[in-house]
Every structure is written in C-alpha cells, then in structure tokens.
Amino acid sequence: MKSNEIKEAALKYFTIHGYEGASLSQIAEEVGIKKQSIYTHFKGKDDLFLQVLRDAKETELSSKLQYFNKIDSKNPEKDLYGFLKLVIDLFQKNEQLKFWLRMSFFPPAHLSKAIEEEVINLEEKVQVVLESKFQDWIDAEVIVRDAAKTPTFAFLGVVDSIMLELVYGNDEKRLKDKLEASWTVFWRGISHR
Amino acid sequence: MKSNEIKEAALKYFTIHGYEGASLSQIAEEVGIKKQSIYTHFKGKDDLFLQVLRDAKETELSSKLQYFNKIDSKNPEKDLYGFLKLVIDLFQKNEQLKFWLRMSFFPPAHLSKAIEEEVINLEEKVQVVLESKFQDWIDAEVIVRDAAKTPTFAFLGVVDSIMLELVYGNDEKRLKDKLEASWTVFWRGISHR
DNA sequence: TCGTATTTTACGAACGTTCGTCAGTTATGT
DNA sequence: ACATAACTGACGAACGTTCGTAAAATACGA
C-alpha cells in the first residue's frame, strides 16, 4: 500500500523537522514519487499530518494499555519498572512515540486545537488505568498508603523525564544512569522500608 | 535599542512556531519595521536565532547558578523545593526558558550541532553544582547515603517533568498536582524517615 | 480467456504565495 | 558632513495546491 509508505516517510520528516519544516517534496522523494502524487492519497498536508498523528496515538495507546491489561501481579516493583523499559523500547524501535511527543508539546499552531484534544484524550485514559493499579497496590499494602494520585502523577513524571532523555537521545550511558537514579528514588519514595 | 526589540519578537515567534515556522516578516511586523530592515542589525535569520539562543542560555544559566550560590543552608528540603518553584517562576515570567527547552530537544536540523554544544555545556555546569550540593548533604547526613549522582539525576528528572508540564501549560491545577506528587515522592525517596 | 470499460495512481506544467536575502535609496539625528 | 537606520524594489527558490492527462491496475461481460 503506497499511502502507508507515504505516511511512514511523513512520520520521519515531521519528527525530525516539525510540521513547518517538513516539505511534501522531501516526503515524496523518500517514497520515490512526485509531490503532486501525494494528493492522490491525501487531501493535503494537514490531512496527511492528522492521519499520521492518529496512527501514532493509536500505537502508543494500545501499547500502553495492553501492557497494563496483561499484568495482574501484586508486584508493582517489577511491573512499573517494566513499564519504563517498555517506553524506552517503544521509543527506540519506532518513531511514532517521538513524533507524538514533539507534537504534544510543540504542535503546529493552526492544528493545536485538534492535537490538544487527542493528547488530552490519550493522557486521561493512561492516567485512569494507572491510577486504578496504584489504588489496588495501596489497598493490598504493597506500597505506602497515600492518595492514589500521588504515586500516579509521580510515576508519570518519571516517564516524562525518561522520554525527554530519549528525545535528547545521544547518550545511551546517560539514559541508563538517569533511569536507574529516577527509578531508585521513586521506588524508595513509594515503597515500605 | 531596536535590536533588542527584534530579538524579543524573534524569541516569541521562534518559541511558538519553531525556527522553520517563524518568518522574518512576522517578526518585523511585530516590531513595526519591514523585514529587510532586520538585516541592518543581524546578518540573517541564523544570526538572529543564534543570538536569541545565547541570550536565553545565559539567562537560564545565571538564574540557576545564582540560586545555588545564594543558598548555604543545611536544609535541602527547602532549597530543592525552592529550586522547583524558581524554575516554574522563570518559565512563567519570561519566554526564554520555553524557547530554550524547545530548541534543546527539537533544534532546527542545520543548526543542531551548534545548539547541542550549548545545551551540553549548560547541562554540565548545572549538573556539577547540583551534584556537589548533594554531596554536601550526604556528608552532613541530612539525606540518605548514596552515590551523589543518584539524587542528582533523580532531581534533574523531576525538574524535566515539571518543565514538560509547563510547556504543556494549559492546566494550572494539574501542574500543582504533579509538582506536589513528584516532590513528595522524591523527597521521601532521598530523606531519612 | 480475451477484450473492453472503469477505476486507481502518478505525472508534467503551472498557479499564487511566501520565504530569506541583496542592492540601492531616502530619512533621521549628531 | 557623516553615520546609522529604515525604506523601496527586486531576486531566485521553495512552498502547498490544482488541473488535465497518461499509464497502470482492476473489474467485468462475452
């Protein structure tokens, strides 16, 4: 399917150069067609962008939800750390998460409304499922008693900081160090000891 | 000084639209001149951008270093939390930190090398002074014994996550919640209890 | 199976706009 | 007068987009 090839190339250029910096001619060249041919598959640049955006959202959402639905253990230490590893893995094996991150925080101005909706929608869903997990662990007394929101937001903060380090991305060693440091302190902060 | 007005306007547009999305004509219009007049003060778009970048770097660096040089107390709880509040304050009262953050993580491709140098240079300096503070606190036994790098990186992670929330920026309540949650868990993670 | 009709896909050419930049000229103030 | 600053005018290049057309793939009836 050629439209998928186009979306792949578009993802790459949108991620590297942003919406304004990515040109249709570059994207077309990557696929081996002329830029006019893009209009056979998409209404225009905005349409292409929004389809790439929705694909990225779906990939990220399903990956994360799937992870939490799979686990049922009473072992938050393993599960939470595993989630951080999952995020790193997602980030490194496809570009969609990096694209998503860039557009979440620095959306093209004329599409910021539409993007913001998608971002909030995804964020809420992740937060809800995460918060209920933390509530379970609190009830089971495997982590410290607290408002479930506290470890939830703190953990989302750790995820964010790891993702930033991934975006920054030129230093594998530093990533590992930051991950270990953030995780160590976070886990000490929510576990009994 | 007109060149400062131009840099101010440029900062604004670079921050909102990125390098590629910001046009010299928009910037000039904001100042009340024609775009060609910008060349009286700057060699071109790149020159203008790099000057704005260096100004932003200096502001951020001096603000942060000044904060840590001012404090001498043995009260990390107050000082570290105060630093987070400082970051929030810096972010909200001028655009330079937001600009800096955007360009750190999503630099225009043809200037990424120059930008990366500046970023690494700043990051190192902040890390060094922060790490020595943590070492002092560890030696004074006011926080848990650990490699100084661990609380340093963890704290930098908290700073990053707060900054991301600031970029996201449309929800004051959520910012407060995330700050409290991250801080609570972080402090529990490095303090005796 | 073959030939034809229909749809899908890609293309060249061109559109109007905007981009960053350069050159030459006019106005302002010391 | 001289320097500084902002102007007008123009440049080539790139942008996203539209149009009409040719080729390629598909569907279909004989």
UniProtKB/TrEMBL annotation, chains A, B:
The keyword Transcription applies. One of its GO terms (molecular function) is DNA-binding transcription factor activity. Keywords: DNA-binding, Transcription, Transcription regulation. Residues 23-42 bind DNA. The keyword Transcription regulation applies. Residues 1-60 form the HTH tetR-type domain. Signal peptide: none annotated. This is TetR/AcrR family transcriptional regulator. It comes from Peribacillus asahii.
